[in-house]
Amino acid sequence: MTPDSLNALLESNTEARTFFGSLPDFVQGGIMLRSTEINTEEDLHKCAESIFHEFE
Question: Is the CA virtual torsion 10, 13, 14, 19 positive or negative?
Protein backbone atom coordinates (compact mmCIF):
# COMPACT_ATOMS: atom_id res chain seq x y z
CA MET A 1 0.00 0.00 0.00
CA THR A 2 1.51 3.25 -1.10
CA PRO A 3 0.22 6.78 -0.46
CA ASP A 4 -0.57 7.20 -4.16
CA SER A 5 -2.34 3.86 -4.64
CA LEU A 6 -5.69 5.61 -5.23
CA ASN A 7 -4.11 7.89 -7.82
CA ALA A 8 -2.48 4.94 -9.54
CA LEU A 9 -5.80 3.12 -9.66
CA LEU A 10 -7.63 6.15 -11.07
CA GLU A 11 -4.93 6.71 -13.69
CA SER A 12 -4.92 3.10 -14.85
CA ASN A 13 -8.60 2.15 -14.58
CA THR A 14 -11.19 4.08 -16.61
CA GLU A 15 -14.15 2.48 -14.83
CA ALA A 16 -12.75 3.39 -11.41
CA ARG A 17 -12.07 6.96 -12.56
CA THR A 18 -15.63 7.30 -13.93
CA PHE A 19 -17.12 5.87 -10.73
CA PHE A 20 -15.02 8.15 -8.52
CA GLY A 21 -15.98 11.19 -10.61
CA SER A 22 -19.68 10.36 -10.26
CA LEU A 23 -19.56 10.41 -6.46
CA PRO A 24 -20.63 13.40 -4.36
CA ASP A 25 -17.82 15.63 -3.11
CA PHE A 26 -18.13 14.45 0.50
CA VAL A 27 -17.64 10.83 -0.60
CA GLN A 28 -14.68 11.71 -2.80
CA GLY A 29 -13.12 13.55 0.14
CA GLY A 30 -13.63 10.59 2.44
CA ILE A 31 -12.09 8.27 -0.12
CA MET A 32 -9.09 10.54 -0.49
CA LEU A 33 -8.58 10.43 3.28
CA ARG A 34 -8.42 6.63 3.01
CA SER A 35 -6.44 6.56 -0.23
CA THR A 36 -3.73 4.28 1.14
CA GLU A 37 -6.38 1.60 1.78
CA ILE A 38 -7.59 1.56 -1.84
CA ASN A 39 -5.70 -0.63 -4.27
CA THR A 40 -8.46 -2.10 -6.45
CA GLU A 41 -11.75 -1.03 -7.98
CA GLU A 42 -13.49 -3.29 -5.46
CA ASP A 43 -11.74 -1.43 -2.61
CA LEU A 44 -12.97 1.84 -4.11
CA HIS A 45 -16.58 0.65 -4.24
CA LYS A 46 -16.45 -0.73 -0.68
CA CYS A 47 -14.96 2.49 0.64
CA ALA A 48 -17.61 4.62 -1.08
CA GLU A 49 -20.38 2.40 0.28
CA SER A 50 -18.92 2.66 3.78
CA ILE A 51 -18.84 6.45 3.60
CA PHE A 52 -22.43 6.60 2.35
CA HIS A 53 -23.51 4.46 5.33
CA GLU A 54 -21.67 6.74 7.76
CA PHE A 55 -23.83 9.67 6.60
CA GLU A 56 -27.20 7.90 6.60
Answer: negative
